[in-house]
Amino acid sequence: MARGRLRSLAGLTLLLFLSACGRLVPPTGIPPTAGTALAAGLHAGPPVARLGLSGADAGAALASFRESCPKLLVRDDASGLTRAADWKPACDAAGAWSSAGPLDFFERYFETARIGDGKAFVTGYYEPEIAGVRRRQPGFDVPVYGLPPDLVRARPGDAAPLPAGRQPVGRYDASGKFVPYWDRADIESGALMGKGLEIGWAADPVEFFFLQIQGSGRLRAPDGSVMRIGYAGQNGQPYTGIGAVMRERGLIGSGPGQYSGSMQGIMRYIREHPAEGRALMRENRSWVFFRELTGDGPVGALGVPVRRESSVAVDPKFVPLGAPVWLDLDRREADGLWIAQDTGGAIKGANRFDSFWGAGEDARATAGGMSARGEALLFLPKGTLGKHGAR
Asked: How far is CA 291 from the centre of its chain?
């Protein structure tokens, strides 16, 4: 979470473990940027009033939308659908809107749109809580590292740029040569020990591995105190979804000796096969560094707290961060109105979402098994569809 988001890899709970209609040309005649909402196709959806939105659902969404507005009004929309000023009427109204009429709010200020065919795929994520302490003590031997000062981007000319044009992340060795940063096996073997980078200590390396995948979580000490930690950076090494590796090796399935592809099934395999499990986790060379978080909730990519059953991670090229999203799925608990407040490495493309379920065992169970399909609609400021000529 280089920007304080809940997790740099939001949506990994299932997808990374297992690792449209007509085109619309904007009125300007300039072809839409490839891989954006406009390129996928923008189509008018039904009126908000016809969706059967409940008052409770609308109320929770309105509260999250209100929190999003300060960021929504000043950020660029990578989807090409809106400008910051388009959201001002709704945001101005949201600040003083009565909690007794949230349905009226969404009906008055929004129209719905489908991106492409609107066929949605939804996974889940959560804020893990694991046993951990601030200072090392017996039984808590897994270091939680803060961001190392020697983790840097290469200077121009010292390394080949990444496909997106940015310089890679790594370190400069004793001779001054830029090299890849330590990978998971190096770090677990002690490459960073003795450098004063520990901000906490976890009890269970398996639980900590999965907390790293989520990118944020809580360390709960034996005395009941809690330390919230969030993404500070990543070592620049490639991420490997270990569920995909297990599937390739025939370990995932429904037959004898096979395991489910859920987070719970993968954890069971690792615990029942300690040596193989340790080697499997090391195949994911990526390592996440953390910082302590303060405030009333984990922070998403939009820069505001993500809320249980109200916040969803999206691909910002297809959904404006801060926009409401309506989901109608084959998993009833994930139906309803969400607010786009986070992003993630696995959340790519139109109608791909990752729902946030909070913290605790129930959140873990729901997020770990979430794999839903159905329909998605975006809520956009009224007038957006006409501006783009969508029908």
From this structure: 17
Biggest alpha carbon distance in the chain?
66
Residue 27, burial from CB neighbour count under 10 angstroms (0-12, 13-18, 19+): exposed
pLDDT surpassing 90 at residue 117: yes
Cα within 13 Å of Cα(233), Cβ side = 14
Average pLDDT over residues 55-71: 95
Range scoring the smallest mean pLDDT among 302-306, 344-348, 375-379: 344-348
The percentage of the chain sitting over the pLDDT mark of 70, rounded to a whole number, equals 91
Report the share of the chain in percent with pLDDT over 90: 75
Beta-bridge partners for 142: 202
Per the DSSP assignment, residues forming a β-bridge with 337 are 326
Residue 280: phi and psi, rounded to 5, are -60, -45
Closest of 215, 246, 249, 247 to residue 347, by C-alpha: 215
CB 378 within 8 A of CB 105: no
Confidence of residue 99 (pLDDT cuts 50, 70, 90): low
Domain 129-292 top-level CATH class? mainly beta
Which band of pLDDT confidence, cut at 50, 70 and 90, is reported for residue 256? confident
Can you say how many angstroms the Cα of residue 50 is from the centroid of all Cα atoms in its chain? 30
Average pLDDT over residues 347-355: 94
Domain ranges of the chain: 37-124+303-387, 129-292
The CA–CA distances, whole Å, from 83 to 10, 139, 141, 380 equal 25, 52, 49, 11
Contacts 24+ apart (CB under 8 A), 348-351: 348/315, 349/315, 349/318, 350/20, 350/37, 350/40, 350/115, 350/116, 350/315, 350/318, 351/115, 351/116, 351/117, 351/118, 351/119, 351/120, 351/121, 351/318, 351/376
Q: Kindly indicate whether the domain formed by 37-124+303-387 is annotated with CATH number 1.10.10.10.
A: no
Q: Which of 377, 374, 360 is nearest to 331 (CA)?
A: 374
Q: What angle do CA 87, 337, 37 make, to 5 degrees?
A: 55
Burial class (CB in 10 A: 0-12, 13-18, 19+), 194: exposed
pLDDT(296) > 90: no
Residue 195 to residue 335: CA distance in whole angstroms: 47
Report helix, strand or coil for 173.
coil
